[in-house]
Design goal:
It is built from three helices and six strands. It has a six-stranded mixed beta sheet. The longest helix has 14 residues. By secondary structure, the protein is α+β, with helices and mostly antiparallel strands. A hairpin with a 4-residue loop joins strand 5 and strand 6. The radius of gyration is 15 Å and the shape is globular.
């Protein structure tokens, strides 16, 4: 038997340390939380995706009483981005979340497994790493790629 280790390196930053383009992306994800429809969980998530054509697409989680018929913010954004701009490549993704108290989560909130898998598909289509920015009230994480969020991804690529 061989023991192995997976290490995920990422940057921990404050909002002020972000470059201007990443501040815009985080601000868009933050704003998208206000369009969340989350009457059941009261957990509001916003996602923003920067495309190589200069567009920024936002999405928010949308719940349904027939759980789990709703969709997460990340999949809402990525599916719309590709449906609207099928030739555009993903460049960066930002995610923000408000907890049940209505405040932004102190720690950054990562995408669920289904969203990680969906986002990975678009990273593969982009042909390059797509950084992921996770916004928290107290800190921000910048991961180098979607794949870094899902080290044992299901993939045929």
């Amino acid at each position: 038997m061989m023991k192995r280790e997976t290490i995920i390196r990422f940057d921990e930053l404050t909002y002020d340390e972000l470059p201007a383009d990443e501040k815009v992306l985080v601000d868009t994800a933050v704003d998208a939380t206000s369009r969340s429809y989350a009457p059941y969980s009261n957990f509001r998530v916003g996602a923003a995706i920067a495309l190589d054509n200069g567009e920024i697409i936002a999405g928010s989680n949308q719940e349904n009483v027939a759980f789990p018929s709703g969709t997460c913010a990340e999949r809402s954004a990525c599916f719309y981005a590709h449906a609207r701009y099928p030739e555009a490549k993903f460049e960066k993704i930002a995610i923000a979340a408000r907890g049940t108290d209505g405040e932004f989560t102190a720690e950054p909130t990562a995408p669920c497994g289904a969203c990680r898998q969906a986002l990975l598909e678009y990273e593969v289509l982009a042909g390059h790493d797509v950084p992921v920015i996770l916004m928290g009230r107290e800190k921000i994480y910048r991961l180098p790629s979607v794949r870094s969020t899902l080290p044992f991804a299901f993939s045929e690529f």
